[in-house]
């Protein structure tokens, strides 16, 4: 397996539009969602969630009788995760389940040629599917001798690879079951039993260990998502050969949605289906990269017992706090490229790191989608009689994060627009926040409340303190950087060709500049964005923020990709660790593994987790730190898989104010824009407390630079004061998980 599978979308938003493959419009056989349920209202008001944290909630009893037998249909209504969302794009056909079952003849959802409706009614035309359900199916796949991938088994093939399970050789044949649960597509994979029938699976070759495979990406809801048998079998081939069973679902794939309640609801039911077929596992270990790692951290926090251990690959602590520095990226890139384009400093990408914090490289060469974006931008500006100076190299903000802000923030943009008729698309408000507005609540204009905030943020403060920029540059940056417009005021994105050519080339804007409030000079500073305090509180209350308190062992592993300017920066692992230390007093149940990109340590992580769990169960009175075997210690690997360094202090560094450890010297981490502005590595502060400019000057915030002569300009730029990072997040509730919040 490559750790990079199923990660965040990166350039998909504009890269596809500028020469890649279409996302569906005009493809043969492509069917669009054509209708919405009666009474659909995208602006229906809702209050921010202020109830108990999910870790304190009692879940309702199961109402569906498992198992789902072959040919039957799984539950479609979530057990506790709220009402079903519409529109909902079907992917049963592309997943191998065939067309979705017709469930209405009222034009709601996707047209289907399937003649049998879910209620048994027969109809050959005018049938639609709004819920994308499909009967459960199962197949056998085998690993051919000498073959690279699994293939469908017809029951007669003899050239089957042999594996050893429980000391006995067995044919490497996997029973794969697929169906729908909570409208999403689930998948179960386990070794074929010795005398099992396809409709009566046997557990005699299962080693009693279950893997829950989580997948990543950035989703804004409304998609069933495509399930891939090939991906699951390839990703977990080594563990399947050892007798592990694997479950997965498009409902626990964050590229389809980031509703952690719905992910939990779905994961619980997928496990219930598995248990009903095979029995209770000794333990369930989660594995997954990026958004798959986020789900593991949050589910371990919100629903103890769902998974017993986690292998969090390319982790972030959660989705929502990553938006805090990432939403700064395009604001800063626009400043460097356009507002301050005459400043030659920014023509070398590595100098942008002074302000952005994320890594940058003067040696990084653009290619593919990035190159097309740059060429298109240059042509668009030439058509307007303007120019964009060339720069040497690239930044993580561009390579890793370009396109993320529109997807997450703009209610008038969806990269899968081609799967919907124009009428349906225009009736819906799209974005991560709109998708979760039942938690965030709506504002007076009917749009989801937004927790993001940059009031008082002094961009580039550390660069000023280090004299990388002078006071005049610091003031200009903070006066003109501005913020994002309110989502209610945002316009469709100007991504040329992404909407079939309706945007003019001259309007092309990779920064989404038309949706920004920016300034041109520090005499009239651009407004900042004030985050909604109720939305911030709701993010904490609803379990969308990783607070750092979990009772399972975690191996947080990643390949080191800082040189590639990949979005999966290594600092995120230490953000999670810092939160765990703050909440628990220590992070003894988390090991951080980082490897050269040529070596994947995941198989060793499964072994270490197994040893860790068994050690803890043998001596339950021990803490996770006390029970941790040497094989699960912090460590770093070279390209050949050799452990270069390991132990308790190999990852010390600036993040915890200790001398730099051996692994940190080999694989250094970088900052982000909020850390450059004075924030710590935890990254869980949405809205900073403010202090007056006078107070900041008296405290020596700008030392060794004397900013007293610029006091009047600072006060004009920051009329409400500047961030005081000694104080906690102003939107965080005092009580979150039932205990007094650790600040």
UniProtKB/TrEMBL annotation:
Positions of transmembrane segments: none
Region described as Disordered: spans on this chain: 22-57
Coiled coil (UniProt feature): none
Domain of life: Bacteria
One Pfam family matching this protein: DUF6351
Domain DUF6351, first and last residues per copy: 76-731
Protein name per its UniProtKB record: DUF6351 family protein
Source organism of the structure: Aromatoleum evansii (Azoarcus evansii)
